[in-house]
């Protein structure tokens, strides 16, 4: 007699194609670049982002201290923020979780599979403290827009675009 398990005979169960391993391989030969499709949005964006961010470290080097804990690479932070903007990830916590899990995001940020993603509070701290000088009020002063008149936002954008600020 052939035993029946959940309505399936032993001969039928053998035909089902069960997963035989439990992912017990210790090492994998794996190239992240090979896993990202050639027509992926981040590949197309990367063509433009790489030259723009190429010398970012050199330009910002004087703003970073030589002592203390090492900081997060500014290029990495901008790449992660680009991912957040492109894919509608408005929460910094959600952004770091998605970069941790998504292979295309890791590739775009130039992470390897075992690289550690920055903590979400790194983005919050920079947004609240470091980037305070880039607030709309300071941009308005630089562009010569004063007062709190209706429609000021549109005028500010137009004036800043004209003056390249």
Tell me the distance between the termini: 83 Å
What proportion strand? under 5%
Mean pLDDT, all residues: 77
Give the % helix. Answer: 40-55%
Count of alpha and pi helical runs: 10
Round the Cα radius of gyration to an integer and report it: 25 Å
Structural class: mainly alpha
Q: Give helix and strand order, one letter per element, not per position.
A: EEHHHHHHHHHH
Arrangement of strands in the largest sheet: 1-2
The number of distinct β-strands equals 2
Which regions have little confidence, pLDDT < 50, spanning 5+ residues?
none
Polypeptide structure, described:
The protein has ten helices and two strands. With 165 residues, the chain is mostly helical. It has a two-stranded antiparallel ribbon. The radius of gyration is 25 Å and the shape is globular.
Q: Would you summarize the structure shown here?
A:
52% of the residues lie in helices and 2% in strands. It has 165 residues and is an all-alpha fold. The chain has a domain at 29-59 and 71-147.
Structure keywords:
mainly alpha, 2% strand, 52% helix, globular, 165 residues, two-stranded antiparallel sheet, single chain
Could you give the topology of this structure?
Elements lengths: L3 E2 L2 E2 H6 L16 H4 L5 H13 L2 H5 L13 H13 L5 H10 L1 H6 L11 H9 L7 H8 L8 H12 L2
Helix pairs in contact: 5-6, 6-8
């Amino acid at each position: 007699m052939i035993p029946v398990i959940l309505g399936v005979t032993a001969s039928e169960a053998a035909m089902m194609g069960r997963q035989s391993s439990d992912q017990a391989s210790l090492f994998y030969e794996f190239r992240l670049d090979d896993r990202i499709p050639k027509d992926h949005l981040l590949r197309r964006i990367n063509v433009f982002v790489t030259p723009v961010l190429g010398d970012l470290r050199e330009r910002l080097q004087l703003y970073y201290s030589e002592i203390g804990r090492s900081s997060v690479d500014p290029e990495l932070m901008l790449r992660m923020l680009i991912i957040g903007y492109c894919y509608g990830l408005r929460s910094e916590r959600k952004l770091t979780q998605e970069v941790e899990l998504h292979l295309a995001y890791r590739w775009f940020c130039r992470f390897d599979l075992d690289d550690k993603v920055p903590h979400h509070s790194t983005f919050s701290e920079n947004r609240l403290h470091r980037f305070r000088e880039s607030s709309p009020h300071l941009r308005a002063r630089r562009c010569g827009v004063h007062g709190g008149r209706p429609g000021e936002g549109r005028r500010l954008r137009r004036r800043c675009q004209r003056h390249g600020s």
